[in-house]
Every structure is written in structure tokens, then in C-alpha cells.
Amino acid sequence: MFRNELEKLYSRNLIRNIKDREEGQSAARIIIDGNEYINFSSNDYLGLCNNPYINRAAKNAIDKYGFGSGASRLLSGGTSLHSELEREIALFKETEDALIFNSGYIANISIIPIIAGQGDAIFSDELNHASIIDGCRLSKAKKLIYRHRDIEHLSELLKKEDAKRKVIVTDTVFSMDGDIAPLRDLYNLRDSIFSSSPDSVLLYIDDAHGTGVLGDGKGALSYFGIKPESWIIQMGTFSKALGSYGAFVAGSKEVIEYLKNSARGFIFSTALPSCLIGPSLEALNIIRNDPTLIKRLWLNQERLINGLKRLGFNTSNSETPIIPVLIDSIEKCLNLSNYLLRHRIYAPAIRPPTVQIPRIRFTVTANHKEEDIDSLLNVLSEYKE
Ligand SMILES: *Cc1c(COP(=O)(O)O)cnc(C)c1O
Question: How far is the CA of 193 from the centre of ligand 1 (A)?
């Protein structure tokens, strides 16, 4: 079964393999098949995914509430930790309310189809995350794709389109390129284009890689100094910088009430166990009380990207801890990735169809030591194609 399909993938060098870890991750190390690597592949930007306080919070939640949740939130699956986390997220994001979703993927495919329906139009950046693309596919709205971060192109499309509601959807930090959406310009579009009918526009941002990373951890809006508005919906995840699991959406009371009553991935799916919620609460506490983590992350980001540029690598427009090194062929990209593996450096080759231009995608975290980054740069400086 599926032999032909698999053969096609093999012949194009597109077969992927799962590599499972044998131990917890800490100090930016990963052990695979008994070998230890410096890990540049994790989204654990603040080094929280094996933090003792967070681990403790999971154990405490199990002791108090048990492991399983047993039902959806609308039945009896939630606990007081769930509502506490939603209150804390709303405070953190300075919105009226918030709602937990089981994952970022589920949030996007559940929310986008109901904020943009029949008669509406979605305007989506061409490099948006796959979960946004799938959310758009599930929507009955008309879909228009604008060129990556291209405000001119977007405003052209917006002006031409006649729709009840126009929903602009974008990643804040693009997950394969590490560049940042021009949120200030997107924000200003509303005044320039929609001044006569401001209620017809919505901005939906996916802050999966911005939460805990940008704007003192508060995310992309805060980074741009934009205050949350009733027409902005912020989605984010606990699974990246916060080292936990699950996702949230933050916005006005009205939006959140609507989502609670309409988002199918919320209504028809079992609530996250509280042992995944306690850790997210603890992670929020940690990043609010310890600014040194985020500071360390950005010092490391600077050290790595400057080093890569000095060596002449093409880091595209990266301006975050996601730093791609673009390589012009899949084969060369796999060669470099294997070379790094032989030198005990773990960084994945990302290939089509995930991206157009093959690349090694380095992610740097607060857990890396200066020596780790320098080792990577040394190994790269000795690479011969
Ligand atoms: C990781 C990611 C998601 C999915 O989040 P999960 O909680 O892992 O399902 C959604 N959007 C973006 C931009 C992401 O990077």
C-alpha cells in the first residue's frame, strides 16, 4: 500500500525519519542512539521544558486533580487550574479574556473557519504556518494569499475585495525564516483602508514563536508597542518558549464567548489534563519574575547570527532565535546536516514542501552556553562542500 507514493518521496530525497530522544533535554544537549549532540533544533527558547519548578507543577497537579480530564471543558473536563490559566493569560496579554485550546494546530484549524465564513474574505501571508493554511482550507470564506510581509500587495488585495468581513491572518514570527510580520503596518491598514467601516476588519495573529520571546515575553504586539484591540485576536502556544503544552487565544470578551460556543476543536475535544495546565501557569510565573532568561536568549541569538553572517552564510531576514541558513539544493543541505551530525551538532535540514528554499534551521535558546555557539561556528568554518 502507498508504495508508489513512497517511491516518489525517496527518489526526491524527501523521506523524513523520526529521531526519538532517550533522555530529558537540558543544557541544550540531546542524546540520540547513545550519542550526545549540542541541540540547535528545539523550540524550547527559554530552556523551560525540563525545568524543576515546572516538572514539580505537573506532579502537584496530578496529586490534586488526578491524571486524566475525562471530558471536554463544556462538560466536566476542566479544573480550577484551567480557569486560573485563562485569567493569567488575559492579564499577561492585557486582553479582556482568554481561552485554552488543546494545541496550536487545533486552535488555528478551529478558530479561522468560524471567524471567517461564507461571504467573508481571508488574507493570508504566503509563508504562514501549515496549521493556518489548514484553518483557511476549512473556512468557507474566499482566500487570498499576499506576498510574504508585503503590505503593498495586501492593501491592493484588500481594496479590490468586496466582503462582509475581511480577516487578515499572519504568523508573528515566521517559523521557518525567523523574520517578523510588519504588525505596525498591518495595524495602520485598518485606519487607512477601513476608516468608514472599521467593524469589517479583523486581525488574527499566531504568536506561537513570539510568546515568551518578543516584547519581554508578552509577545509580538507588545514588541511593536501595539495595545490589544477588540478587532485583534491573538493566538499563542504554551509548547514553545513556555516549555509546556497546549495553546491559548486572547481577545475581547465577546470574541472569547463566541469561540467557546462555536469552535469545534474546543467543543468536541477532551480538555487538556491539569498536569499540562499547572506547568503553563508556572512557566508564566517564571518568565514574569526572571527577566534574565529572555535576556540570555537574545544575547545568544546575537552571538549566533553575527557569527553565521561573519562566515558568509545566508541567514535570510532572520531577526529572532530562529535562524535559517539557506542552501541552494536539497543534496547540499543534507550533506551539511550530516556533516554537523558527525561533529555532534543536531540541526535539522528543512526541505520542500515545508519550505521552498532548502535550509538548515538553527534555533538558539537561553540554555546554550557561549561555548556551544562557538563550537557550532567553528565546525561550520571548517566545512567544505
Ligand atoms: C508550532 C506552531 C503551531 C502549532 O502549535 P502546537 O501547539 O505545536 O500544535 C502553530 N503555529 C505556529 C506558527 C507554530 O510554530
Answer: 30
Distance between Cα 247 and ligand 1 center (Å)? 8
Sign of CA dihedral 369, 372, 377, 381: positive
Residue 234 CA to residue 237 CA, distance in Å, equals 10
Q: List, chain by chain if needed, residues with CB within 6 Å of any ligand 1 atom.
A: 103-105, 108, 129, 131, 171, 175, 206, 208-209, 237, 239, 247
Out of 124, 175, 239, 337, the active site residue is 175
Q: What is the pLDDT along the chain (385 residues), one digit of tens a residue?
A: 999 999 999 998 888 888 888 777 777 999 888 899 999 999 999 999 999 999 999 999 999 999 999 999 999 999 999 999 999 999 999 999 999 999 999 999 999 999 999 999 999 999 999 999 999 999 999 999 999 999 999 999 999 998 999 999 999 999 999 999 999 999 999 888 877 677 789 999 999 999 999 999 999 999 999 999 999 999 999 999 999 999 999 999 999 999 999 999 999 999 999 999 999 999 999 999 999 999 999 999 999 999 999 999 999 999 999 999 999 999 999 999 999 999 999 998 998 888 999 999 999 999 999 999 999 999 999 998 7
- The pTM of this model reads 0.95
Helix (H) or strand (E) holding 326: strand 322-326
Compute the distance from residue 44 Cα to the ligand 1 centre, in Å: 13
